[in-house]
Amino acid sequence: QVQLVESGGGLVQAGGSLRLSCAASGRTFSLYAMGWFRQAPGQERELVAAITWGGTTYNADSVKDRFTISRDNTKNTVYLQMNRLEPEDTAVYYCAAGRSRNWALQGSYEYWGQGTQVTVSS
Asked: What is the pLDDT of residues 77-92, one digit of tens each?
């Protein structure tokens, strides 16, 4: 089993920055990818960014010029640096991890954090 603990959410003004952290514990050696999802009220959950064991990264088109995903394997921790935040970024952000190589599919992530609220005011 893998446990994920998130931190870093909060309230920021438009144009500001925020960094989310996700610490993984348990049997993390078999994980292939970790990612960040977000879900706004009335919207479906969407993949924001992902990073694989080999270091390949992915960013959704809506955030690719503003968000950066990174990892520290020695700490089993993944980060999401969020810059130039916009009100449209307001959502609950979830950390997720999976063993599947098909990291682009939401169903491939079997471990999930509790979520952290990010609110961007205009």
From this structure: 999 999 999 999 999 9
- Which helix or strand (DSSP H or E) is residue 98 part of? strand 91-98
Distance CA 33, CA 3 (A): 14
Backbone φ and ψ of 55, nearest 5°: 100, 0
Q: Which positions ≥6 away from 31 have C-beta within 8 Å?
A: 2, 24, 53, 97, 98, 99
Those residues of the chain that have pLDDT short of 50 are none
Mean pLDDT taken over the chain? 95
C-alpha closest to that of 22 among 32, 2, 7, 39: 7
- As a whole number of angstroms, the longest Cα–Cα distance in the chain is 42
Residues 6+ apart with CB under 8 A from 73: none
Residue type, 34: M
- For tokens 């990818």, the residue is 33
